Amino acid sequence: MQKLAAGNWKMNGLDAALAEIDALAAAHPSPECEVLICPPATLLSRLAARAEGTAIQTGAQDCHAAASGAHTGDISAEMIADAGGAFVIVGHSERRADHGEDDATVRAKAEATWRAGLTAIICVGETLEEREAGRTIDIVGGQLAGSVPDGATAANTVIAYEPVWAIGTGKVPTLEEISEVHDDIRARLTDRFGGDAGGMRLLYGGSVKPSNAAEIFGVSNVDGALVGGASLKASDFGGIVEALG
Ligand code: PGA
Q1: From the candidates 20, 78, 101, 162, which is the catalytic residue?
Q2: Which residue in the list 20, 28, 34, 92 is annotated as catalytic?
């Protein structure tokens, strides 16, 4: 299984930010892991063009479930493929919270991603309140059951475990806490999808940076990271790519 370093630029980046792609590609011409950047939709095709001939792949941060139609402001998975994207993040906690996306919506978006021939990165994770109430495993298990469509394979799906309280806060669960959740996710996927789930990549996300990446990647069933803040600068993200080598 090839590990995955996925960067999520969120609502950050103007044209000048594409210089980070040049720097990342120059510093890591042949990384051992897969490297993915998901810029805002406005930069998708520019980033894909800029990354051509490098090891850097391009993805989107969200898509609509439909292929086309009267959905002002939305973009479809087919449009993302047309712009040069290979992955789509679906069900990020910021979309679940800011746009009221529930598991059924996320599942439909993951199916749309497959329909366009792309790989879905399906996000799950508990809030601080849920963790403190001892409900983490139940919440994440429920999100997995509801958000991951039938037909998920190691090739078309990546799961990202992102505790909501660790995103952008500098707070990270203990390695034991990460291990408990990732082992449980692997077991649930294997129960539901059989042996193929063994090869499905499980990313950890939430305040990953160069200084904590290596120890997180040492945890069992952590196959890479989904990185927000530390993906914006090539020097930071490069440190995370190196830690996955
Ligand atoms: P962060 O964001 O790395 O800035 O915590 C992670 C994410 O939201 O994917």
Answers
A1: 162
A2: 92
Which atom of ligand 1 lies closest to the CA of 227?
Answer: 3
Which fold does the domain 4-243 belong to in CATH? TIM Barrel (3.20.20)
Q: How far apart are CA 201 and CA 115, in angstroms?
A: 20
Q: Which tens digit of pLDDT belongs to each residue from 31-84?
A: 999 999 999 999 999 999 999 999 999 999 999 999 999 999 999 999 999 999
CB-CB neighbours of 219 under 10 Å: 19
Phi then psi for 7, rounded to 5 degrees? -105, 135
Query: Is pLDDT at 99 greater than 90 in this prediction?
Result: yes
Instruction: Give one word for 209, left, alpha or beta, with left for phi > 0 and alpha for psi -120 to 50.
Output: beta
Whether the pTM exceeds 0.85: the reply is: yes
- Interval between CA 94 and ligand 1 midpoint (Å): 10
Q: For residue 43, give both structure tokens.
A: 């930069």
Tokens of residue 216, six digits: 């997180």
